Amino acid sequence: MLDNFAREINYLRVSVTDRCNYRCVYCMPAEGVPMHCRDEILSLEEILKVIKSSTKLGIRKIRLTGGEPLVRKGIINLVQGIARIPQIDDIALTTNGALLPAYATALKEAGLKRVNISLDTLKPDRFRQITRVGRLQDVWAGIEAAWEEGFEPVKINTVVIRGFNDDEILDFVNLTKKLPLHIRFIELMPIGVSDKFPADKFISVRQIKAKISQYENLEVAKKLAGNGPARYYKIPGAAGSIGFISALSDHFCGQCNRLRLTSEGKLRPCLHSPQEVDLKASLRLGLSEEELAEVMRQAVLSKPEGHTMNARGWGDNNRTMSQIGG
């Protein structure tokens, strides 16, 4: 389906939980966020009904997010259910990686195609500082489990924060020389907790790329599997690649192809806009898949032309990234 700005909407990001086993400093406060009761979030059956309905509008790609999606009970059954929907041709998952050693085999067998793993530092002490509770070795075990199960590609999402982890940019780049990892440097977005960060913590993709180019020759690389906005490069002869996601400095709203479904059933046409459509209410009124698709169609037609993060930050929207779905 095309929205009002002739963008083809074919990608749905589904937050299966607002819970997380980490407390990353740019994602949620140290005490966490108020968690929803079980009946406040969508059941697995309701999520599947939304996905089936969305295929009537042309949704073909699903990404499962959270919070941390692997803390959701029944996540394997959900992946199996999505894999049985004929119109869906790609199922991916974004995770912090800590639980992947326990789930990777079952996820692969269930039909998951790809994983993105969040990792913002290669230093154990700094990792603990960022996540407040995590251990770096657990994430590396998750990365290794993804390799062993044959997930391809394995992408690493790295949010760059000036004065905090920008001194590790070249360390991440060096990982790609020998390992089949695809590092994606992401600009810090003023969403939720990070909206209160000082402006000088922001470092643009242009600045990140310039820092790398002082030491390495970058050549344009082919786009990886998936429908993401990253622009990819690689060092000649490297096993992996380097991607850049410029959500603020050179936003990609003109090519945005996605919708977001929050864990409590709100359909969000734009990450930054507070506008949401309550699909949970429609589901629990007993709407058919066709009727639900029509509700979603109207949401697509309300999708704004672009975000306003540069102009006014997160504004009065008090929801965190973990509550929306990354």
TrEMBL record:
Reactions it catalyzes: GTP + AH2 + S-adenosyl-L-methionine = (8S)-3',8-cyclo-7,8-dihydroguanosine 5'-triphosphate + 5'-deoxyadenosine + L-methionine + A + H(+)
- What organism, scientifically named, is this protein from? Thermincola potens (strain JR)
* Keywords, sorted A to Z: 4Fe-4S, GTP-binding, Iron, Iron-sulfur, Lyase, Metal-binding, Molybdenum cofactor biosynthesis, Nucleotide-binding, S-adenosyl-L-methionine
**How and how many cofactors are bound, per the record note?**
Binds 2 [4Fe-4S] clusters. Binds 1 [4Fe-4S] cluster coordinated with 3 cysteines and an exchangeable S-adenosyl-L-methionine and 1 [4Fe-4S] cluster coordinated with 3 cysteines and the GTP-derived substrate.
Q: Where is the Radical SAM core domain?
A: 4-227
Enzyme Commission number, as recorded: 4.1.99.22
What is the name of this protein? GTP 3',8-cyclase
Extract the GO molecular function terms from the UniProt entry: 4 iron, 4 sulfur cluster binding; cyclic pyranopterin monophosphate synthase activity; GTP 3',8'-cyclase activity; GTP binding; metal ion binding; S-adenosyl-L-methionine binding
| InterPro entries xrefs | Aldolase_TIM, Elp3/MiaA/NifB-like_rSAM, MoaA, MoaA-like, MoaA_twitch, MoCo_biosynth_MoaA/MoaC, rSAM, rSAM_sf
Which taxonomic lineage is given here? Answer: Bacteria, Bacillati, Bacillota, Clostridia, Eubacteriales
Q: Where does S-adenosyl-L-methionine bind?
A: 26, 67, 118, 189
Q: What exactly does this protein do?
A: Catalyzes the cyclization of GTP to (8S)-3',8-cyclo-7,8-dihydroguanosine 5'-triphosphate.
Family membership noted in the UniProt record: Belongs to the radical SAM superfamily. MoaA family.
- The superkingdom listed in its UniProt entry is Bacteria
SUPFAM superfamilies registered for this protein in UniProt: Radical SAM enzymes
